[in-house]
Amino acid sequence: MSLLKIDGISKSFGGLKAVDNISFEVKEGTIHALIGPNGAGKTTLVNMISGIYTVDSGEIYFDDEKITNVPTHKLVNKRIMRTFQNLEICENMTVMENVLLGFNINMNKSLLKCSFQFESIIDDEEKFTHIALSHLKRVGLEEHAYKMCSDLSYGVLKKVEIVRALAINPKLLLLDEPVAGLNGTETAEISEIIKEIAAEGVTVLLIEHDMKMIMNISDNITVVNFGQKLAEGRPSEISSNPQVIKAYLGEGSLHA
Amino acid sequence: MGNKGVFLDRGIITTIVILSVIPFLLQNSFHYEIAIMCMLNAVICIGLNMLVGYTGQISLGHGAFAGLGAYVAVILSTTFEFDPVLSIMISAIVLAAMAYFISKPILKLEGHYLAMGTLAVGIIISIVLTNEDQLTGGPDGMGVSEFSILGYVFENDMQWYVLSAMFLVFSIWALQNVVNSPFGRILRCIRDSETAAKAIGADVPYYKTYVFVISVVIATLAGSLYTYYSGFISPEQSGFMRSIELVVMIVFGGLGRIYGAVFGAIIITALPQFLTSLHDYEHMVYGAIIIFVMIFMPKGIVSIFDTLKVKKDEL
Asked: Is B156 helix (H, G, I), strand (E, B) or coil?
């Protein structure tokens, strides 16, 4: 059964059709990869799913419910979480605080209770700090828990962002280039984390340029190019699809 | 109200001790006036710091909001003979409603544009207060009725000192609780990355509006109290320079630091009084001090404590 259904969505920026009538479905509990050359419209697509951009036409369904143009912060209540290509982490906060932000919708945020330090606020804080610590432990970040994010490396922060997105046990996790700019070891670690998440039943929509990783961990792949869907299928089908090879390597490569 | 957290930390206790010692050093009414002015400015700065330092939204209109709030309270209690506490409460509600409606369009602006937007609102308020002379007494200002809480009349400096000190300690305590709570965490998240705030499910415009309204209400309360203390109000208190002065205080003290706002307000308020003996050179020295602090301590005067702490750890 499909958890996320994209039905013919389009988005233009001025005269440029960034996404042109793309449809695909993401099956529940799978790792679905979205690939394509730079500028193909992958991030635009994810930005539309997560409500950061408005959709020009077409519909998006999540769990058979229409979520087209629902604002980002409301999608969190439906347990759709995402990470960003260019790291959206609060630099002036500790790793722990960033992860606690992920529990935002489960926490009591009444200003009155917060300013008078009600017991419920402190209990919440204790409870979620405990859960956050176990999440951090799982990805090997417990030693960094109380460090400032501005002092940590890019690779660590990429993981922090994933942990933050996982805080509320999302149903759908959108990962926009989680290993971009990371070295081999870090990439392998994050691939492992993604596989584990998926094994626990979280559906993952993954954008990535690292082909080795994509072929390794994804169940299904959708290829986009110039804003249109080029191909769809299992990793083995995609890697031998002539159109995909052409889009990535150019016209002459088929005959080489 | 049950409480398992740290109820009173070292900072608050030190503040209470210092505030209880200061009256012994104050020799006359003028000294009291400076001390009370410092404390009430510190309260306004704590509220403003929540907006500028913690949420990252600049406002160059808070002097005008504080002034307008004071005028509303004073006009109600002096011209219409309302009870002073009731007048302050009504003025806080009026200003909160005004801040709410202004914030809807204005907080859509960012950075320099937000600064200009709030600046414009501030200047309009100031012009209205100067020109509506049948209500406000115009540029000459107006006298203010006496202040009392439930019949207890505030008539000497010590009473005002205690009231202001209590207000200050409460503000520091409450802000400290807020910034370390889930609410405060969202504010800091909005400052660092609005996109991240949306992605974790925070309704960013809601929080911006909330903090804007709260900071205006705090400015109104402190502004009104000061006016009742001084017994006189003029449009100068809501002018452009007043708004700038408040922002200078929090930047000078340390943006996004609880005691930054307090130190900034105290130093910027009291410094000119200490420098009056320099006569003609007063403004030059005042300017030079601000410039040097900002060059050598760009994170504000409270960054001294961070440096001291690092030195202590190294030893």
From this structure: coil
Flag if B192 and A90 touch (Cβ within 8 Å): yes
Say yes or no for a CB contact (<8 Å) between A109 and B200.
Answer: no
CB neighbours of B9 closer than 8 A, spacing ≥ 6? B176
B237/chain A closest Cα distance in angstroms: 29
Instruction: Search chain A and give the residue with CA nearest B181.
Output: A114
Cβ-count burial of A108 within 10 angstroms (0-12 exposed, 13-18 middle, 19+ buried)?
middle
User: What's the token pair of residue B64?
Assistant: 């005008």
CB contact under 8 A, A89 and B196: yes
Q: Which residues contact A206 (CB under 8 A, 6 or more apart)?
A: A31, A32, A33, A34, A175, A178, A194, A214, A217, A218
Tens digits of pLDDT across chain A (256 residues): 789 999 999 999 988 899 999 999 999 999 999 998 888 899 999 999 999 999 999 999 999 999 999 999 999 999 999 999 989 999 999 999 999 999 999 998 899 999 888 888 899 999 999 999 999 999 999 999 999 999 999 999 999 999 999 998 899 999 999 998 899 999 999 999 999 999 999 999 999 988 889 999 999 999 999 999 999 999 989 888 888 888 877 766 555 4
Closest to B201 (Cβ–Cβ): which among A76, A114, A121? A76
Domain ranges in chain A are 2-255
Phi and psi (nearest 5°) for A113? Answer: -65, -35
Q: What is the pTM of this model?
A: 0.92
Class of domain A2-255: alpha beta
Write down the domain spans for chain B.
Answer: 28-314
CB distance B145 to B84 below 8 Å: yes
Q: Which of B174, B184, B188 minimises the CB distance to A90?
A: B188
CB contact under 8 A, A89 and B195: no
Tell me the HSE value of A82 on the side-chain side, using a 13 A CA sphere.
Answer: 31
* Of the partner residues A50, A84, A92, the one whose CB lies closest to the CB of residue B192: A92
- Cβ–Cβ gap A73/B201 under 8 Å: yes
Nearest to B177 among A76, A82, A115 (CB): A115
Q: Give the separation between CA B228 and CA B235, rounded to whole angstroms.
A: 15
Please give, rounded to a whole number of angstroms, the shortest distance from the CA of A128 to a CA of chain B. Answer: 11
Question: Which residue, chain included where needed, has tokens 């954008």?
Answer: A207
Contact A114 B184 (CB under 8 A): yes
Using the beta-carbon criterion (under 8 Å), do A101 and B200 form an inter-chain contact?
A: yes
CATH class of B28-314: mainly alpha
